Amino acid sequence: MVTAGRHAEVRVNKAGCFSQCGHGPMIVVYPENVWYAGVQESDLPEILESHILNGVPVKRLIYDPGVKGANKVK
């Protein structure tokens, strides 16, 4: 896929809640391992522009589990 002149790999997964159902819908951006919670369709342009294209995570949407490493891929 090419987005704004950049090549990007996007993978969409359907998954169970992983005990996170109350925080969904969720998005994770790799390789930074930044998780977003409560994402609405209206948030997508901001995530694309700010994080994907400019490398600045959208702080208001970042999921912080309160437990270090709780959202890390093992």
Summary of the model, kept short:
The chain has 74 residues and is of the alpha+beta class. It has one helix at 44-53, and strands spanning 2-3, 6-7, 27-29, 34-36.
Written description of the protein model:
By secondary structure, the chain is an alpha+beta fold. The chain has one helix and four strands. The strands form two sheets. Strands 1-2 form a two-stranded antiparallel sheet. A two-stranded antiparallel ribbon has the order 3-4. The chain is globular. The model has no long low-confidence stretch (mean pLDDT 79).
Return the string of H and E elements: EEEEH
Mean pLDDT, to the nearest integer, reads 79
Major sheet characteristics = 2 strands, antiparallel
Identify the overall geometry. Answer: globular
Query: What Rg, in angstroms, do the CA atoms define?
Result: 13 Å
CATH second-level architecture: 3-Layer(aba) Sandwich
Question: What percent strand?
Answer: 5-15%
Q: Structural class, please?
A: alpha+beta
Identify low-pLDDT runs.
none
CATH topology: Glutaredoxin
In which order are the strands of the major sheet placed? 1-2
The number of helical elements comes to: 1
CATH superfamily: Glutaredoxin
Task: Present the secondary structure layout.
Blueprint: E1 2-3, E2 6-7, E3 27-29, E4 34-36, H1 44-53
